[in-house]
Amino acid sequence: MKLSFEEIKRKLLLGENVNLECKEAESTIPKSVYESYSAFANTSGGDIVLGVKENKKETNPEKRFIIQGISNPTKQIEDFWNTLNGNKVNANILIDDDVYTVSADGVVLIIIHVPRASYNLKPVYIGENPYKGTFKRNNEGDYHATEHEVRAMIRDQNPNGNDSAILEHYNMDDIDITTLSSYRQMFKVTNPEHVWNSYDDKEFLRMLGGYAKDRMTGVEGLTVAGLLMFGKGLPIREKFDNILMDYRDESGLSGDMRWSDRLTYDGTWENNLFNFFTIVARKLTSDLKKPFRLENETRIDDTAVHKAVREGFVNLIIHSDYMMDAGVLKVIKKEDGFEFTNPGVLKLPKEEIYLGGNSKARNPKMQTMLRMVGFGDNAGSGFPAILKAWSNNGWVTPELVENTVLNQVCLSLTFEKAAIKNGDKKTAIKNGEKKTAKKSEVHIKNIIEFLSTVGEASTAEIAEKIGLKPSRTREILSTLDDVEAIGSNKDRKYILKSK
User: Fold this and answer.
1) Which of 277-280's residues contact partners 24+ apart within 8 Å by CB, and which partners?
2) Which domains does the chain have, with CATH numbers?
């Protein structure tokens, strides 16, 4: 969706951010445009507005950004395309409609919309050296990507994922037999007639993708998936000393307690991923409600919520980047829900993940290992299953937050009830949500004031202004009779209704 002149003016009141960059460019294309192009492509996309001067000493947004316009838009656009299609950058990810002009009262601006680059095209960089010419974006502007960030982008290009690489000199001696036996027992219960049940441990692992041989070189050994899922703690820490596993129960705390239960490496357990998953999954679901239900005269204790929580945990494991310079697989149980944080940014845009039907796990072998014993849905259906379970219980939509600076993703699942239609305060109080109702009143007031100032804004812009997560902001917006949504889901904005 193209921006209008008025929309740009309203955005400037919010200032530059991770998705908006302004440049003066009165008569020529600034060289820094290509840095912003690289940064937006490698982060989450954004718009470059040419024809706006910034006074960095001015703190008032209305005075900080001065719309000056472009004197020769046709020539600048032609120069931009010629440069982009030359050897200035390694990839042109734009289409014709991504570069356009808007005008008002004789003032012309050039807009360059840069989409988020597909994972198989990153890094998008300037010049010939990705380690020198790759940029990323934060709220402060463009910055040089670190070597580790560039390596992560290059790793993610691999269509086979990151966990099938053979680890030379790591063999069956590095497998924790107790862990593997536990997995095999679970596999046998789930797949009683499967031929793999008759194989020895090495062949069984080979079939799962946990052990492999390079036919070209003759090198064989455990794969990344095999060692991390079933390995002994010591060889895992030797090979992956950059990765930590951490579970904390932060529910039911009193006084100055920071957690009531914790699982991290302490020498009492073999810290492989399968152990971490099975131990922690039980802790996460132990307090969830289990309504009485019989199936074929057998009580079924599993619910859609149980499965959704485990699915969130599975996603953490299969989407983690275990090759990063540092990272923590963090699982937190809170009074009002759960948080799953994994190292590595999203490979797909959030919109595609919420929609489902497509999956690009960094660790497809691990995904198979977990799916074969009943954990994790078919490719692309897991996240929609989480959304459905939470929606059916009337809870706030699960929030997937990507931090492209820390290079991590956090999934928040909360038991907070979704906002009540028409702001029914009496019902909220009746449900024991008096505090929530009062907080919502403050947020509603701030939303109305903000929209009165800027005219229209997206969920993300409103959320940033009032200090809430986009999911919670979206829930509140849906209750407001004085606010209406315009545009499609992807480009939806909110405005005040005409009196």
Assistant:
1) 277/313, 277/314, 277/317, 277/370, 277/375, 278/182, 279/247, 280/247, 280/313, 280/331
2) 5-156 (3.30.950.30), 172-414 (3.30.565.60), 421-496 (1.10.10.10)
